[in-house]
Design brief:
7 strands; alpha/beta; 24% strand
C-alpha cells in the first residue's frame, strides 16, 4: 500500500481573505499546481482520495479524484489542528488493503506532526524534508506499518498576474 500525503496547493494569503478561511479557494497558481499533481501521479492507480473540509484541500485533490473516477471524501481528521487524529488515520489506513493507493490532503500544521510521529515510530525518510504547497509525501506501507517516507515536490512555473 502507498499513502500519498499532500499539502494543499496555493490559496493566496489567508490574511487578505475576508471570508471564512475554510472557504478560501485555490488561487491561479494553486489551480496550476493541482493540475501538475495529476501529471505527477498519473502512473498511480489511486483508489481513494480523502481531504480536509477546507475548500483549498478539496480543490487540490479533485483533479486526481476525477482522473481516477472517484469522489473526494471529506475527513475531519485532516483538518487544521488535527495532527493526532491524522496520524491515527494514516496508521489505520496502513493496516488496510495492501494494494491500495490512497491520497490524503491536509495542511501545513498537520503534515509535519504526522511525519514526526511516523519517524518516531521507525519510518525512514528520503528525498529531503519539507511541506511546500502542493508537495507530496509518498508513504510506503509494509505489513501494516509505514516504513518509508519519500518527499516529492513538483515545481510549477510561477503564474504572474497580468497588469
Amino acid at each position: 500500500m502507498t499513502i500519498l500525503l499532500i499539502r494543499h496547493a496555493s490559496a493566496g494569503d489567508r490574511y487578505r481573505w475576508w471570508g471564512d478561511d475554510a472557504d478560501r479557494p485555490l488561487d491561479e497558481r494553486g489551480v496550476a499546481e493541482a493540475a501538475a499533481l495529476v501529471e505527477l501521479l498519473d502512473d498511480r492507480p489511486v483508489t481513494a482520495v480523502l481531504s480536509s473540509s477546507a475548500a483549498r484541500c478539496q480543490q487540490t485533490v479533485a483533479p486526481i479524484a476525477r482522473r481516477n473516477g472517484i469522489e473526494v471524501e471529506v475527513h475531519d481528521a485532516l483538518g487544521e489542528g488535527g495532527a493526532d487524529r491524522a496520524t491515527l488515520l494514516v496508521r489505520r489506513l496502513a493496516g488496510a488493503d495492501a494494494e491500495a493507493t490512497t491520497v490524503l490532503c491536509s495542511h501545513a500544521d498537520v503534515i509535519p506532526e504526522v511525519l514526526r510521529d511516523l519517524i518516531m515510530g521507525g519510518m525512514h525518510v528520503s528525498g529531503g524534508r519539507g511541506c511546500a504547497k502542493a508537495s507530496v509525501w509518498e508513504l510506503t506501507v509494509d505489513e501494516g506499518e509505514v516504513v518509508h517516507g519519500h518527499y516529492r515536490q513538483r515545481p510549477v512555473q510561477p503564474v504572474w498576474p497580468a497588469h
